[in-house]
Design a protein that fits this description.
By secondary structure, the chain is an alpha+beta fold. It is built from 23 helices and 25 strands. The longest helix is centred in the middle third of the chain and has 32 residues.
Length: 782
C-alpha cells in the first residue's frame, strides 16, 4: 500500500478522478487498519471480563483471540486487494507458441461428463493445433473411457499402480509426455475456445517488454530471476452453486467461489502467492521438474505444488478472465466433503512443508499462506460469535465487559469502515452479510474436521467430489440443521430476555446484545433455509443464449430467437403465437455467429411471456458431429449467472424469497391467445372468441343458441369448423372457470386447425385481433 505522504503528493500533482478513486480504496484500507488497532487495544485492556468467574474469562479470551484472528485475516486480504496486480498479455508471433500437454484428470467420472470437457479442449484455438496434445488421465483404468478417448481422438493415459491419488496420476502423465507447458483440467472443467491464446503468451513476459506506444518487443536485457511458474484462471461454474440455489438467489448474488478466484487470488499476486487450484491452469514443465513433479502426501496436492514452485523463485499469476467453466457440487453431502477436504488439506500442507521456515519464500508470501491457514479456523470464530450473546442473555455469563457508549466509540467505526472497504475493494462480489451467512452455514460441518486435523487425527480417505445430481436423504439435511436450530431457539430466548430488560429495567446496554442476537438469528434462519434444501428438477443446466433458430415441419418454416439452451433442449421466443405441432419432430437449425448445427426436437411446453410466446423443445435426435457443435455453442461462453451482487436485495427480501416457494407446473404445449373478439355466424348469431390455441377455442355464447357443431366464418373461403368438446374431457380448471361463469363459455375443438394454422391470411387477421385486444385492455387499465 502507498503511504499517506505518497497520497498527498499525488493529490498535489494530479487531480485526476481515477487517482482519487484509487486512493479512496487506500484510505478505506488505512481507516480499517487504524480502527481495527484501536478496537483491539480497547478489547485487550478494557473489555476482558476479569471479575466474572472462570467461565466468563475463558469465553472472553477465546472471543478476543477469534476477533484478532479475523481482523488479521481481513487486513491481509484487503492489503492485496488495494494493489491487485494483473499481468498484461504480450503479443507474440504464431511460431513462438510452444507444444503444450493438456491433462484431464479423471477417476470415476462418466464419459458423458468428460465429453463436454474433451470437446472444449478440442475446440481451443491455437496457431498450430498439432502442438496441442490432449490426454485423458484415467486413474480408474476403465475400458469404456479408453474407448471414449479413441472415439474423441485424444490420448489415453493409465497407470498400473494408483498411489498418491490425483498427484500420482498427474506425475505419471508427466513421465509419458514432454511438452514445455502443461495444462491441467478437472474432469468437469470445460475450457473456452480462447483458453490457450489468453494464457500461453503470459509465459513470454520475461522475454518481452512494452514500449510507450503499446508495442511489444523482445527485452534487450533478460532478467534471469524473472520466470513464470504457472498461470491460474478462475474456476467458474455454469450451474448455480448450492448457496445460490438453496437460498433462491441465483439471480441476485454471484457464485460463492467467485470472491476467492476473482478477488482474493488477484490480491495474492501482490506477494507472488497466488494459489494453484488444480484446474484451469497452465504450468511450466521446467518448474514442475525442478520441484520433483506434483507434490504428494497431502490431500490438497495442488496447493502444495504451487507453494513449492514459488519457493524456487518462479513468478505465478492469477487472472480474473473466465476461460473455463465447470460444475459446482449439487448436493449438500458433496459440498461438505469438498470443504472438509480443502480445510484438512490446507492445514496438512502448511504443517508438512513448514511454511514459516521453508527456504525460498519471502515474508510476504509466508504471511499470505498463513492467512490461508488461518481462514480454515473460521468455524471456531463463527461459533464464538454465535454463542457469546446467548451466554449473556440466556445464561447470564458475561463475555465482553462494555457499555453502549464503548460499542459506539470502539466497535461501530471499525465495523462500518471495514464493511465499506470490503464493498469497495471486492468489486461488489462479496459483502459482510453474505460472508456471515456462508460462514454460519458451514461452521458446524467444518468445526469437527478442522479440530481433528489440528490435533493430528487425519481422515484416511477422501472420495472425489460428486458432480452428478444427487438428492441427499431428508434425514441428512435435518441432521445438519440441528446445530442451527438449537442456536436459533436459544437466540430467540435471548431476544425475549433482552426486550424484557430494555422495557422492564430500562437497560440501554441490552440494546447491543439485542442487535447482536438479531443479526445472528438472521444468519441462522438463512442457514436453516439452506439446510432444508431445494428440489432440483432440471436434468441439465440452462444458459441464457440469444441465437437465430429455424423450426421446420412439413412445408412450414418458422424463424425465431432462442431464449435459453441446455444439453437436452432449448426454449425459443416468438412475438407471434405460432402453431407448432406437439408429438411430432421438428427440423431445427440453430445458428450463433459462425457456428451452426442441425437436430430434431419436439415441443414440450408453451407459455406466454412479456416478449411474446415461449416454446420449450426437447431434443429427440442429433448426430455426433452436430452434438459437438451444439455443445460448443452451449459451453463456449461465460456463465449467465450474476457476476455482482444485486444492490436492491434486502434482508427481508432474502427471507421472503425462502418462505414463499412456488411449484407451478404448466403442461400447455400450444400457445393460448386471449382475444375477446366479437363475431357473427352465418345465421346471425353473435359469439365472443374468448381465447384459442389453434386446436381449441373458447366461445362466449351471447345468444345462447350454440349447438354441438359451429362454423365460424373468418375471411373469404376460410372458416373454423368447431366441435363441442366432451365435458368430461375438459380439465378441472376449465370446468371450474366455466362454473363460475354459469357455463356461458363453451370449449370447442377446431377440426381443421392444420389448414388454419398454415394460412397466412389467418395469421394477419389474428395479429389484428391481438392488437385490438391490447388496445382495449390498455384503455380499461387507464
Amino acid at each position: 500500500m502507498i503511504t499517506v505522504l505518497d497520497f498527498c503528493k499525488m493529490l498535489n500533482k494530479n487531480n485526476d478522478r481515477r487517482i482519487l478513486m484509487l486512493n479512496k480504496k487506500n484510505l478505506l484500507y488505512l481507516g480499517t487498519i487504524v480502527t481495527s488497532i484501536i478496537y483491539i487495544l480497547w478489547r485487550i485492556f478494557f473489555s476482558i471480563p476479569l471479575n466474572y468467574g472462570y467461565i466468563s474469562l475463558i469465553f472472553g479470551i477465546a472471543l478476543l483471540i477469534a476477533e484478532m484472528s479475523g481482523i488479521i485475516e481481513t487486513l491481509q486480504s484487503y492489503y492485496g486487494m488495494g494493489k491487485s496486480i494483473k499481468p498484461k498479455k504480450p503479443q507474440i508471433s504464431a511460431d513462438k507458441y510452444p507444444d503444450i500437454d493438456v491433462f484431464i484428470s479423471t477417476y470415476n467420472e462418466t464419459a458423458e461428463l468428460l465429453y463436454k470437457t474433451v470437446n472444449g479442449c478440442l475446440n481451443m484455438d491455437y496457431p498450430d493445433k498439432s502442438k496441442v496434445h490432449i490426454y485423458i488421465c484415467d486413474d480408474g483404468d476403465r475400458a469404456e473411457i479408453r474407448k471414449f478417448s479413441e472415439e474423441m481422438g485424444v490420448g489415453y493415459l493409465r497407470r498400473d499402480t494408483h498411489e498418491h491419488a490425483k498427484a500420482g496420476n498427474l506425475n505419471h502423465a508427466m513421465s509419458a509426455t514432454t511438452s514445455p507447458l502443461v495444462a491441467t483440467f478437472d474432469a468437469d472443467m470445460i475450457p473456452l475456445h480462447n483458453f490457450l491464446m489468453e494464457i500461453v503468451p503470459l509465459f513470454f513476459l520475461p522475454d518481452m517488454e512494452q514500449d510507450e506506444d503499446g508495442t511489444w518487443r523482445e527485452r534487450k536485457v533478460i532478467d534471469e530471476n524473472f520466470k513464470i511458474g504457472f498461470i491460474q484462471a478462475p474456476q467458474s461454474f455454469y450451474n448455480s452453486d448450492l448457496f445460490q440455489y438453496n437460498l433462491y438467489s441465483e439471480q441476485t448474488v454471484p457464485n460463492e467461489q467467485d470472491y476467492f478466484y476473482r478477488d482474493v487470488q488477484l490480491a495474492r499476486n501482490a506477494t507472488n502467492s497466488a494459489i494453484y487450484g488444480g484446474s484451469n491452469t497452465i504450468i511450466s514443465r521446467k518448474a514442475l521438474d525442478e520441484i520433483g513433479g506434483f507434490f504428494t502426501g497431502v490431500i490438497t496436492e495442488d496447493f502444495a505444488t504451487g507453494i513449492y514452485i514459488q519457493s524456487k523463485g518462479y513468478t505465478c499469476y492469477a487472472i480474473d478472465d473466465i476461460l473455463a467453466i465447470g460444475l459446482a457440487p449439487t448436493d449438500l453431502k458433496s459440498l461438505i466433503k469438498q470443504r472438509e477436504r480443502w480445510g484438512r488439506g490446507c492445514i496438512q500442507t502448511v504443517r508438512k512443508i513448514k511454511i514459516l521456515t521453508i527456504k525460498g519464500l519471502s515474508l510476504g508470501q509466508k504471511l499470505s499462506y498463513m492467512a490461508s491457514y488461518n481462514y480454515w479456523y473460521t468455524p471456531f470464530r463463527r461459533f464464538l460469535y454465535l454463542v457469546s450473546p446467548i451466554l449473556f442473555s440466556v445464561f447470564n455469563i458475561t463475555v465482553v465487559q462494555c457499555s453502549l457508549q464503548d460499542i459506539c466509540i470502539f466497535w461501530l467505526p471499525q465495523y462500518i469502515i471495514s464493511s465499506m472497504a470490503l464493498k469497495s475493494l471486492s468489486g461488489n462480489i462479496r459483502n459482510n452479510r453474505l460472508s456471515n451467512i456462508y460462514d454460519t452455514i458451514l461452521f458446524p460441518s467444518l468445526l469437527v474436521a478442522v479440530l481433528l486435523e489440528t490435533v493430528g487425527i487425519k481422515k484416511i480417505k477422501f472420495a472425489v467430489t460428486k458432480k452428478e445430481k444427487v438428492d441427499n436423504p431428508m434425514k441428512y439435511h435435518l441432521t445438519q440443521m440441528i446445530p442451527h436450530v438449537i442456536l436459533a431457539f436459544l437466540s430467540c430466548i435471548g431476544i425475549v430476555n433482552c426486550l424484557k430488560s430494555i422495557i422492564g429495567q430500562n437497560s440501554i446496554a441490552s440494546i447491543v446484545i439485542l442487535f447482536w442476537l438479531v443479526v445472528n438469528l438472521y444468519n441462522l434462519i438463512m442457514s436453516i433455509f439452506f439446510m432444508r434444501g431445494r428440489k432440483n428438477y432440471r436434468t441439465a443446466e440452462r444458459f441464457s443464449v440469444v441465437a437465430d433458430i429455424s423450426i421446420g415441419y412439413e412445408n412450414v418454416e418458422i424463424k425465431a430467437k432462442t431464449l435459453d439452451i441446455s444439453d437436452d433442449g432449448f426454449a425459443v421466443v416468438s412475438k407471434f403465437p405460432e402453431y407448432i405441432p406437439y408429438g411430432k419432430e421438428c427440423n431445427i437449425n440453430l445458428i450463433e455467429g459462425n457456428d451452426s448445427c442441425n437436430m430434431k426436437a419436439e415441443i414440450v411446453h408453451t407459455s406466454q411471456v412479456k416478449s411474446g410466446w415461449k416454446y420449450a423443445f426437447k431434443i429427440t435426435k442429433i448426430d455426433d458431429e452436430n452434438k459437438k457443435k451444439y455443445f460448443s455453442i452451449i459451453y463456449d461462453r461465460e456463465p449467465s449467472l450474476p457476476s455482482e451482487i444485486v444492490p436492491s436485495i434486502s434482508v427481508f427480501e432474502d427471507i421472503q424469497a425462502n418462505l414463499i416457494r412456488y411449484s407451478l407446473k404448466d403442461k400447455r404445449k400450444l400457445a393460448r391467445i386471449t382475444l375477446n373478439k366479437k363475431l357473427k355466424l352465418l345465421d346471425g348469431a353473435q359469439i365472443v372468441i374468448k381465447d384459442f390455441n389453434y386446436e381449441h377455442i373458447l366461445i362466449g355464447d351471447i345468444d345462447g343458441m350454440l349447438g354441438k357443431f359451429v362454423t365460424i366464418p373468418i375471411i373469404d373461403d376460410l372458416k373454423l369448423d368447431c366441435i363441442r368438446e366432451n365435458y368430461s374431457n375438459i380439465s378441472r380448471k376449465r370446468r371450474n372457470d366455466a362454473s363460475r361463469r354459469n357455463d356461458v363459455d363453451k370449449l370447442y375443438i377446431i377440426s381443421n386447425y392444420e389448414q388454419v394454422a398454415k394460412d397466412i391470411r389467418f395469421k394477419d387477421l389474428l395479429l389484428q385481433w391481438m392488437d385490438e385486444y391490447e388496445r382495449l385492455e390498455g384503455k380499461k387499465s387507464k
